[in-house]
Amino acid sequence: MELHKGSPHFKWQALFWPAAAISGIAAGIVFAALALTAVWSAGGSFWGPLRVVAAIAMGIDVFVQPTAYNLAMTFMALSVHFMLSVGFALILAAIIFAFNFDSSVGIALAVGGVFGVLVYLPKR
């Protein structure tokens, strides 16, 4: 059987890593916006989620003044958040590519959804 470029079973020579990284950044922006909006609309501190993420790298000292703005904390939170977003996107892209889950959009979405749940659940 001959494989054609239009076939769902066509295998690219290599995974396009920049697209996976850009997807991770986009997903990170969407998730951060949703998380900050959800916490703020529920009456919580807008800086709360940022402090939790910054604490991954800076320790619990970022919780000393929970309502005050801190530029270093914000920079660290965004750095950690986007490094994790890009890292998880690269892992997901490698899984989808290695197991040929990109043969249909539905399968790719399902695998991405399951991956997202598995990444998110341990935080709860």
- Broad structural category: mainly alpha
**Count of helices?**
4
User: Could you tell me the number of beta strands?
Assistant: 0
Overall geometry comes to: elongated
Average per-residue pLDDT, rounded, comes to: 87
Count of spatially separate domains = 1
Radius of gyration: 18 Å
SSE string, helix = H, strand = E?
A: HHHH
Runs with pLDDT <50, length 5+? none
End-to-end distance: 48 Å
Strand content: under 5%
Main beta sheet, described? none
The helix content is 55-70%
Transmembrane segments: 12-40, 46-64, 76-99, 105-121
Protein name: Na+/proline symporter
Keywords: Membrane, Transmembrane, Transmembrane helix
Organism: Caballeronia sordidicola (Burkholderia sordidicola)
What do these coordinates show?
With 124 residues, the chain is mainly alpha-helical. It has one domain (18-123). It has four helices and no strands. Helix 1 (17-41) crosses helix 3 and helix 2 (48-58) packs across helix 3 (71-98).
Summarize this entry quickly.
With about 120 residues, the protein is mostly helical. It has one domain. Helix content is about 65%, strand content about 0%.
Topology at a glance:
Blueprint: H1 17-41, H2 48-58, H3 71-98, H4 105-120
Helix pairs in contact: 1-3, 2-3
Protein traits:
124 residues; 0% strand; 65% helix; mainly alpha
